[in-house]
Amino acid sequence: MKSESGFSLLEVILSLAALTLISGFILQMFIASLYLNQKAYNLDMGANAATQEMEACNGDSIADNGGGVTRYFDSQWNPIAIEGADTEEYTQNVNLILPENVQYIVTISISEDGLHEFDVYTSFDSSGGYIAGTEQAKEYRLDASVYQITESRERELLISLSTRKYI
Questions:
Q1: Spans of all domains in the chain
Q2: pTM of the predicted model, to two decimals?
Q3: 3-state SS of the chain: helix, strand, coil percent to 5?
Q4: Number of C-beta neighbours around residue 140 at 10 A
Q5: DSSP for 81-98?
């Protein structure tokens, strides 16, 4: 008698069905990881842009900018200059129609919290100890908000940061 070897049609169909299901789950995980990777990238870039803007605020720029600054970025986080965008009417208008290439907005609001007194140890005395003194500095609170522009051209909060600066 001759023995038959190989797979039956039913075995082949079942193995292809199992392979298709497994491939579908792997594809879903890959797509989800791409989405989460892009979201993490945008959060990181938004935090970096906000931090850079807050670090750039020194005594002169705080006095010049008054209540804050607003910066606009495209989808690759390249800065975009918008004519007239530095006016308060422009930045306060939430219904503002932004140019199509604007994808992210970083706003920094600056508020003065008054004078703060610091203990300062500036030099050594003859016995090797510190000579203490005090200095005063203006305390400012800087709040940063990073918005992503959705497909419907609405602002969606991506991240917000806050810090204090003494000048």
A1: 10-166
A2: 0.66
A3: 35, 35, 30
A4: 19
A5: --TTTTSHHHHH-TT---
